[in-house]
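Usage

Read records sequentially. Each one opens with the input sequence:
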Amino acid sequence: MLSGSDADRLGSAAENFDALLEDAVESIDPRFEYVSRLDIFDDGGNYHSLSGRGVEWLNTPLLFLRDGTARYQRGFHPNDLGYLATAEAVAGAVQSRLGISPEPPPDTASTGPTSSVTVRSSEPHFDVGEDFDAQCTIAWPTAPARGVDSIQMRTFCPSVPDQFLFVDIIYGDPDLDVTPSRSTMRVRGAIVDIIRSEYGYTVLAVEADDIQLL
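and closes with the structure output:
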């Protein structure tokens, strides 16, 4: 696991490297604009770096994969959401320089990175408060847990980024007819939490409004 002192040292090194890159870009031509990935990942104080407040946009040093293995793979490099946030920020900077004022889609206007200028893509962001719509399958042999007025299921959803090992779904129908042979479903709802295990893997928590068994 990454200790606090390790994180501080890595953070200082990243800040120094970022400053060197910015100086190098500005020395080439004043017309060039440097887009800092540190600023993007700070996201107005939401902090999407490792162990930050928000959803991590970096891969941890030891990446737990859905096939049950744990391997060193792209540690400390942006994950899918980190690359998406970077692309949006760069696209926003380019459109701003060209004098274009993009209008984000109505359903995404209030979400996404909050760095200076962004272009919000149509790709899902998978953060707390985001809408969720994906096909998921119960990760047997974990059985659903049925309460008085809800059912909880640990699932695997292929369209969700690999950084989330599982998706835990809560649905307000304890009589949902799921079995090992009937466990794939389309889930619509909202992301309500991001759960980080002490062992290093991350789980997405979803409160479902509608489930359609497939």
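Summary fields computed downstream for this record:
- The chain has a mean pLDDT of 83.
- Residues 131-213 form a domain with the OB fold (Dihydrolipoamide Acetyltransferase, E2P) fold (CATH 2.40.50).
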